[in-house]
Amino acid sequence: DMRLMLEPAIAELAARNRTEEEAQRLTEYCDAVRRRIQAGEDYLIEDMRFHWYLAKCSHNMVVEPLMPIIDAAVVSIANITRKELLTATVDTHQEILNGVLDQDPRAAVALHLEMNRIVIKHAKERSEKTK
User: Fold this and answer.
1) How many CB atoms sit inside 10 A of residue 76's CB?
2) Is 127 exposed, middle or buried (0-12, 13-18, 19+ CB in 10 A)?
């Protein structure tokens, strides 16, 4: 819930405030996530780097101290969703990047986080049934 409250706004700030050099680096981080997933390798570090750098591109001094909290959430969520959302992670990261480049990332970030929320909800329901 907190990520859904914060990250669309952070991405919107990144879209407004990022430099061309930062856009290129964000593209590289997005591509790194895709390459790792396609290779069947662990992509968590690249995933965290993508979200961290997106926040850095916001150029907002309040956002940076929040990143350890967001990183912890990324790790927790990825441990639940990573097997079920591999293709979706690639696709939604690309849509977030496209949104940042086109100045309209909010919907892509919200979609990315909602997909995670649905998988987490189903995992929780499965876990409760096995208790």
Assistant:
1) 11
2) exposed
Hey, what long-range contacts does 65-73 have (CB within 8 A, 24 or more apart)?
66/6, 69/2, 70/3, 70/6, 70/7, 73/2, 73/3
Alpha-helical regions (H) of the chain: 2-17, 20-38, 44-56, 63-81, 86-102, 106-129
Q: Which of the 8 DSSP states describes residue 42?
A: -
Query: In a 3-state reduction of DSSP, which class is residue 102?
Result: helix
pTM (two decimals): 0.85
- pLDDT tens digits along 53-94: 999 999 999 998 888 988 888 888 877 776 778 888 899 999
